[in-house]
Amino acid sequence: MSVSDIQPAWNTTTLSKSDSATFATTRAVLVIVGGAVKVGYPDGTTDTFTNLAAGWHPLRINMLYSTGTDAGVEMHGAY
Fold first, then answer.
1. Distance between CA 20 and CA 32 in Å, rounded?
2. CA torsion angle for 63, 35, 52, 19 (degrees, to 10)?
3. Three-class SS state of 6
4. pLDDT at 2
5. What is the SS3 assignment for 25?
6. Of the candidates 29, 68, 63, the residue with the CA atom closest to the CA atom of residue 43
7. pLDDT tens digits, residue range 25-51?
8. Which helix (H) or strand (E) element contains residue 4?
9. Cα–Cα distances in Å, from 28 out to 10, 55?
């Protein structure tokens, strides 16, 4: 763990859903509209959350999948 891992986030951006494109690894995510969410991690593994609630979550992800994520889900990445 480096110092940059424990510093607060300084920016957020809307995460785009894609089954192939990655984005910079988040420090955390802010879920605006929750639901079923499939995410990818930098090590290539994935998780599917069946009912991810709105709010902040300490997820360090680099993919938000289209397949496996509800259409209405809106998430922002904190960097």
1. 23
2. -10
3. helix
4. 64
5. coil
6. 63
7. 999 999 999 999 999 999 999 999 999
8. helix 3-6
9. 11, 10
> Is 5 in a helix, a strand, or coil?
helix
SS3 of 28, please?
A: strand
CA distances from 73 to 7, 47, 51, 61 (A): 27, 16, 10, 16
DSSP characters for 18-48?
-SS---PPPSEEEEEE-EEEEEE-TTS-EEE
CA torsion through residues 55, 72, 22, 79, sign: negative
Residue pair 30/55 in contact (Cβ under 8 Å)? The answer is: yes
Q: What is the DSSP string of 61-79?
A: -SEE-STTS-TT-EEEEE-
